[in-house]
Write a structure and sequence with these properties.
The structure holds two protein chains of two kinds. Chain A is α/β, with parallel strands linked by helices. In chain A, about 40% of the residues lie in helices and about 20% in strands. Chain A is globular. Chain B is globular, with a radius of gyration of 19 Å. The chains are: A alpha/beta, B mainly alpha.
Chain lengths: ~425, ~325
């Protein structure tokens, strides 16, 4: 085990040995063997992390994992959380079945105190009610596409969700409406054929209508997940002659599409709106990301002017160590760990120094404010995160091999996200947006 | 007699498991039982009938979605009713698809089943208003024999009543399969596998026998899928993806193709192997792939084949 970071590189083997005594105690209570908050305070605080480590989402998972390891190292170096060192137990996010089994392993076998992570809504949806039922404090990094969230767990006690996935899309629409109004009459979309893609494209059209933009939809391209050949889609888009293309690709498919689109000359005739540019911005190299492309960076923009000290330090560390540019999943992981830390310490202070139960920590997290990489952030009382979102138009005027933002536009999630209890589509119609 | 004794030994191990293992491993046994039920069916078609299907994950998903739709959309919580609907739905789909697929054998049969499996996956993925798309449909906790167990936590429900229910279901399905494969029908199926022309000359209606086996395998997979869905708490399109069909074939080969106990041995070995590998290395896929390659090369009859060889070697 690395004493500095608290990370066991073998992930599990040694810990099992260390926790044999605990496992024995837990076995006695058989089915009710859930986390025991009254553990001695000199034992490490175990945090289970669930993140994708392979496939098209591996790049996103790596950003989160690297940030959570960095955060843990920092927290441990400054004395841990309420005096207890943090130890991470990492499990891979794959499909719903396997990931749920990994989550159960974290709770029942590893006896973690908290679970953080989760990228795909398809995985977080079945995980959330299971972890809520197991009374495990859970802070999701992501995985909150509206259709699932509004039906699953309307008022959780132990589970905290990330900011709505649709926030970045609402921001993309607002920036486009504000800065490109009058410049597009023919619009097209390309997106993986999934709920999020359909939702955000519908939201963009709804906002166009709301603000009196009568743009004609000339093409809708629905690609399959992990599609790596966009020749046909690019040809169809080119033939449709749109002025603006609303692109919701976000995994490894985004840079591949942009290469194909640039090669075919599509980006010469149509303005690109990359809703999920933040997912892959390190892969969006200048030669195939034209100046003026609308880039949405979600909750972290690595080159943000006047960054927080934490972001500045992390970005320097990340670029130096990994030769890449960190993105929003790093922010989400940092945010989750710091929300947990703040919650534990607040609950502990309220109890006069004795270790709080999971429900007391959860209660303390409600309404809490922390400084994340992306700036001021917090957790609403309805267990939904609020963070800053960043976007703007691409410029090549920088020392990097990727684009940065000419002017950085930032939006607080309170502007981009439906208020507690509201329906997303109803809120879109009635909300007052700053356009 | 040997089969009954071996089955009783397996049953005793599963009965003892919740007491000997912690709650985590008990929750892990439920998908083992689900896969064992499903693969007992697939083994009938693949192991005894010689027909390799790359699309049987579709029937697993039909079972899972039947449970999800009944429980979440129609409010029918009785698991017995969900199972009946799952079996009827899967049997009907298998009856329709089987008519087309069974006109072919070898790789052509495999490709046709793969095609139908992928069509079904696309249906689940694209018709999201109906199926929940990539997020699938949540599966609420079912009632068992009329008891809802509402006061129990989900884990307590899974490692308690549902575990025993799934074990009972597996036992019934397994014993039924033992009767099927030892019946004249099972003999005809094996004969058709070994020599289709000779079997036909003996007056065995090979197509009909295979058709029934195809439907039975679909029904078994659906029952396994319904059990799996309760354990996961959701039915999602990944259950019907071709990689799931690949996993199912892998598990059968790992356990022992064409052997009655192959699916259960394979399901136990695969689940525990994957769990151990995933807990210890992020490169677990490489290890699983390498193990499959080694089994195909050195132990084509799977783990049961290895055990049999070891026993024979000892007797000598």
């Amino acid at each position: 085990m690395d004493p500095k970071s608290g990370i066991d590189p073998k992930s599990g083997i040694d810990r099992r040995g260390v926790l044999k005594g605990m496992a024995g105690l837990a076995a006695g209570s058989a089915v009710g063997a859930f986390p025991m908050p009254a553990l001695a305070q000199n034992t490490p605080l175990k945090v289970g992390i669930i993140a994708p480590r392979a496939g098209t989402a591996a790049y996103i998972g790596a950003n989160g994992l690297r940030a959570v390891e960095w955060s843990t190292e920092k927290i441990n170096a400054s004395g841990g959380i309420a005096g207890r060192k943090v130890e991470l137990v990492v499990e891979e996010e794959t499909n719903a079945k396997e990931t749920l089994e990994r989550a159960r392993r974290l709770v029942l076998q590893e006896k973690v105190d908290c679970i953080q992570g989760g990228y795909s809504t398809g995985v977080t949806l079945p995980m959330a009610p299971t972890l809520e039922d197991m009374q495990v404090l859970t802070i999701f990094w992501d995985g909150t596409t509206q259709d699932g969230v509004k039906e699953t767990m309307p008022s959780p006690k132990y589970v905290f969700k990330s900011a709505d996935n649709e926030c970045e899309a609402v921001m993309a629409s607002l920036i486009a409406l504000k800065h490109l109004k009058g410049q597009f009459k023919r619009i097209a979309a390309i997106s993986p054929d999934y709920t999020y893609g359909r939702n955000v494209w519908t939201a963009f059209k709804a906002l166009n209508k709301k603000f009196g933009i009568d743009a004609e939809v000339v093409s809708e391209q629905w690609s399959s997940f992990s599609q790596l050949d966009f020749t046909a889609n690019v040809a169809a888009l080119k033939a449709a002659k749109p002025d603006l293309i609303y692109c919701v690709l976000g995994n490894a498919d985004l840079p591949i599409f942009m290469r194909a689109a640039t090669s075919a000359g599509l980006t010469d005739t149509a303005r690109m709106v990359l809703v999920q540019a933040g997912h892959q911005h390190g892969q969006l190299k200048k030669p195939f990301t034209p100046v003026g492309t609308l880039l949405c960076y979600n909750t972290m923009y690595f080159a943000r002017p006047n960054p927080s000290p934490a972001q500045k330090e992390f970005v320097e560390y990340y670029m130096d160590k990994y030769k890449d540019y960190p993105h929003w999943e790093s922010d989400r992981a940092f945010f989750a760990m710091n929300v947990y830390k703040a919650g534990v310490e607040k609950a502990m202070a309220a109890k006069g120094g004795s270790w709080p139960k999971p429900e007391e920590i959860a209660q303390a997290i409600e309404g809490i404010k922390v400084e994340s990489f992306g700036g001021p952030a917090g957790m609403r009382k309805d267990h939904i995160a609020e963070e800053m979102f960043y976007g703007g138009f691409a410029t090549h005027d920088n020392p990097y091999d990727v684009c940065t933002l000419k002017d950085t536009y930032s939006y607080d999630a309170s502007v981009l996200q439906k208020p507690p209890g509201a329906d997303f589509w109803g809120w879109l119609e009635t909300a007052n947006f700053p356009v | 007699m040997k089969t009954i004794l071996a089955f009783l030994a397996v049953l005793a191990a599963f009965v003892a498991a919740p007491f000997a293992l912690g709650p985590y491993y008990t929750t892990l046994i439920i998908p083992i039982l689900a896969y064992a039920i499903a693969l007992t069916g697939l083994n009938l078609l693949f192991g005894y009938g010689g027909l390799l299907s790359f699309g049987h994950a579709m029937f697993l998903a039909i079972g899972a979605y039947a449970s999800a739709v009944m429980g979440a959309k129609l409010g029918v919580r009785a698991f017995e009713a969900q199972l009946i609907v799952a079996m009827l739905a899967s049997g009907t789909v298998a009856a329709l698809i089987g008519l087309l697929c069974l006109r072919y054998t070898t790789i052509f049969f495999s490709m046709l089943t793969l095609a139908f499996g992928m069509i079904f996956h696309s249906f689940l993925f694209k018709f999201y208003d109906l199926t929940g798309g990539e997020s699938g449909i949540s599966v609420p906790r079912p009632s068992l024999f009329g008891a809802s167990f509402a006061s129990m936590s989900k884990t307590a429900f899974l490692v308690g009543p549902f575990y025993w229910y799934a074990l009972g279901l597996f036992s019934v399905m397994f014993l039924l399969m033992a009767l099927i494969v030892s019946s004249p029908f099972g003999l005809a199926l094996k004969a058709g596998r070994d020599n289709e022309r000779k079997t036909s000359f003996l007056g065995v209606p090979v197509f009909k026998v295979r058709y029934v086996a195809f439907i039975l395998s679909g029904i078994y997979c659906a029952v396994g899928g319904a059990v799996l869905a309760v354990s996961i708490g959701a039915a999602d399109p990944e259950l019907s993806y071709w990689t799931q069909s690949g996993n199912m074939i892998f598990i059968i080969i790992l356990g022992g193709l064409g052997q009655l106990f192959g699916p259960i041995v394979g399901a136990v070995s695969f689940t525990l192997l994957q769990d151990t590998l995933m807990a210890n290395t992020e490169y677990w896929r490489f290890a699983l792939g390498a193990i499959l390659a080694l089994i195909i090369i050195f132990a084509p009859r799977g783990i049961l084949g290895l055990i049999t060889r070891a026993l024979e070697w000892r007797r000598r």
